[in-house]
């Protein structure tokens, strides 16, 4: 039974691949892939003139050298809050741990219960699994307090179709492998995208759009000159969820005079939609940030503000003399697996980033995302491997599973 369930999940996996490239489409592309594949997807989309440098924390940077003057650093996150395998049980179940700071509300782990997941192995393959969910038929035997209790990570058990530690190992799964929800993102109406860590992907997409959509007359990102005084470095930083380690490394090595941080994962407001700003009204900046407000007005970008404490980025006393300006894309249902962002806000933030970086106005975009290679090829390993004998019962289960898949395909062909 467990094997047949895994087969059905494999058949139903659909990764969005919009054909028309606009900010919402690029956001959907980046939001549809786990954090481990985002860097490669961004690198593939950058123009050939962009000279990318990487460090051992996973950050990648492109620089534009200007004339003498202040050095501006603009950063967006590459990563997201995530989960790792923290235990492999004797009966083949996996346990999870959240190595990053937990979301600011109690239902964070509840969203994981009864969901399809993907485990990325050290070899880069993605192994499908599901999180076990309590049987509703047995709820009558549980106490009222137990039924009402909010689930935590201690209640999350991942089933990958294995019944022993050895079978888990045969799938390539090891301790500390990354785990993510399989259903990453969805395209909604009116240019909106919902999904896991959409606020982080929206920030990364805005910087990518600012660099990628430059006109033919605009100097390339890696060129020796830029419009405006000073120089600018643009970076997608790793380990933003671990005390902003990626950003701190760049502060140490680049010594910028001013920093603009495009932030994801802002805590939601106390309202039914868990909002960070209002969708469609432009990027969110900190109240009282006159510098950002002035530059947004110069770029023709409307912004909205929230209390500065909600956008705060802490990097330590060693860098307190460096002005740090934080901006974010507004979202609804913040810090949930269905964060919603609006492509128009992503485009507005990209316009602001391009203006700050002296890159010039954004050009119209006619890139077909279908022309780009898949940044996350998924390889789904079979439980019956060539180097071990599958029992007759497993072979029978595979036959039944194949028949079931053919039935699904026949039904789907009618729609």
Key words describing this protein structure:
415 residues; alpha+beta; six-stranded antiparallel sheet; disordered C terminus
Provide a concise account of the structure shown:
The protein has 415 residues and is α+β, with helices and mostly antiparallel strands.
Task: Tell me what you see in this structure.
There is one protein chain. With 415 residues, the chain is an alpha+beta fold. 28% of the residues lie in helices and 18% in strands. The protein has 11 helices and 17 strands. It has helices at 2-12, 23-31, 35-45, 144-148, 165-170, 198-212, 245-254, 290-298, 308-311, 343-356, 392-412; strands at 53-54, 60-64, 71-77, 83-88, 94-97, 116-120, 126-131, 158-159, 178-181, 185-187, 192-195, 231-237, 258-262, 284-286, 304-306, 324-328, 339-342. Strands 1-2-12-3-13-16-14-15 form an 8-stranded mixed β-sheet, sandwiched between helices. A 6-stranded antiparallel β-sheet has the order 5-4-9-6-7-8, with helices on one face. A 3-stranded antiparallel β-sheet has the order 10-11-17. The two termini are 28 Å apart.
